[in-house]
Amino acid sequence: MKVSKISQRRRLLWALLVLFLLFAALVVRLAYVQLGKGAELSAKAEESWRRNIPFTAKRGEIRDRNGEALVTNISTPTIMAIPAQIKEPDKTAMLLASKLGMNEAEVKKMITKRGSMVERIKPGGRKITMELAQEIRDLKLPGIVVAEDNKRHYPYGGLAAHIIGFTGIDNQGLTGTEKKYDDKLRGMNGSISYLSDAGGRLMPGSSEKYVEPKDGLHLELTIDKSIQSIMERELDQAMVKYQANASWAIAMNPKNGEILAMASRPGFNPENYQEYDPEIYNRNLPIWMTYEPGSTFKIITLAAALEEGKVNLKNDHFFDSGAVEVGGARLRCWKRGGHGSQTFMEVVQNSCNPGFVALGQKLGKESLFQYIRDFGFGEKTGVDLIGEENGILFKLSRVGPVELATTAFGQGVSVTPIQQVAAVSAAINGGNLYQPNVAKAWIHPETGEVIDEVEKEPKRRVISEKASKQVREALESVVAKGTGRPAFIDGYRVGGKTGTAQKVINGRYSSTEHIVSFIGFAPADDPQIVVYTAVDNPKGIQFGGVVAAPIVQNILEDSLHYMQVPQRKDQLPREYKYGETPMVTVPDLVGATVQELYEDLNMNFMLAKSGTGNTVINQAPKPGSRVERGSTIRIYMGNDSSEGEHKH
Prior knowledge:
Shape: elongated
Number of helices: 21
Structural class: alpha+beta
């Protein structure tokens, strides 16, 4: 049956309509892709063609409180590969491996890595010398690029190493402030990019695109390089002198919690930290080490008793027979036979354990342990360094008469050095507990503008100014008349307290190993600096007054001179024991005759003459200087002006 012409036309019309609709849909789709998605698709295409060579941002410098750079950056080239541009992988891998001291197969795997736009050749190609970089440039290997990188440089070697820390191969902070403040120090990397074809060749008409790196912020620490150097010198000498297991020290401004210096031994050099035992660089002993503090902890018991009005240091008396019985335990004084009858000021001076047991009993466990916690023990201080420990206190429910007694003189509790420094600072600064810190300010790397500054506010008030003043006076008497006399500094008012604690080894107190310590501060009436030092298991005599006090004395004396704290004449006079040499004042000898000198000196000094003549025209040391009795004064002889005129 024949199809009518009308039916044929109808079918043709429908076919044309369908074709038209398909064409219209295609036009709409093309318009959408071209106009609506064009920019996005072009960007994706360009991204697939683009090759990026990274530019590492400079890490922020770390400086001391006076702007002295403790950590800087030096330029170090890094070798990079652009796999798509490498023409002879085997030859390239062989040449690179021989220059970089790497395995040839590993190098080849890196330089032929599929999907990689740019590949760093590591570890051998990271942070290489300028000479090696030039040798690799001279090879003119297609696809191998020498890019600029940088690494950390330490102008003062291992100075403040535990505070500063170090960085890894990718400039990431691994320990210390480098890790704590990594996000601010590291900055943002930049890059230089270009368009290339599948063979890695630069596309004609394309241009390079440079994204500038943003350098990290400079960190200004509270640390003072000079005080840090003094402290580390003294710890080094102590380690040699006493052949100790370890030693550590902290210097802090007691008025705001700023750490002026912090160090421990054994130390390390961040430049080559891989050469040291991880225990050395991973453990910052001043904030990590926990141990029984010994007698330095008595400062807290003293402060609490004074604040609660439980003792009058000058009028209240205590009889020390050499031991005290508490709850069936016999707690001994360090002095066999005891100190006899003494005021509580003398109890503090003599570091008498039974006397402090009496203070603890007067306070009671609830009150004493509340003060201990108020002073910050049993919790982290919050110092802005990584690795701080809590320390351990007795649970109040488990504190009986014996635990109360031993805690009062620093046994049976476990604390960290930083906790002790923060707590003693609160006891002597007027009663305010501060959070210790090492970060002081953040500096813009280009403008030098201060971006942010650490504000210091006290965490809480622990004792009153009145009680704090009494603590200062008592601790000054310890240094002038008591167990802390080796820390006495002529011309400065110094307060302090010794500590000698038995080490706990395998759950038992050792009779041969001790941690000896001393905490001192000056000037005693207006403290500018507090210094704590501990020595772990020194060889020989193991007493804090003998070992640690002289170390603190040296740190304090040099630091006070450096800080230009004026000397004073109103200090408590030091009591001298048999065999000790007292300090005396050098008289003014200029103008005196030889006969007058030998009549007036009363054997206090030795004399050494220089020059000829009858009269002293100059002298060394100068008049008013303080020296040990028996010291030599050099006198320069000549003729005075009146004698000269008479002769003419």
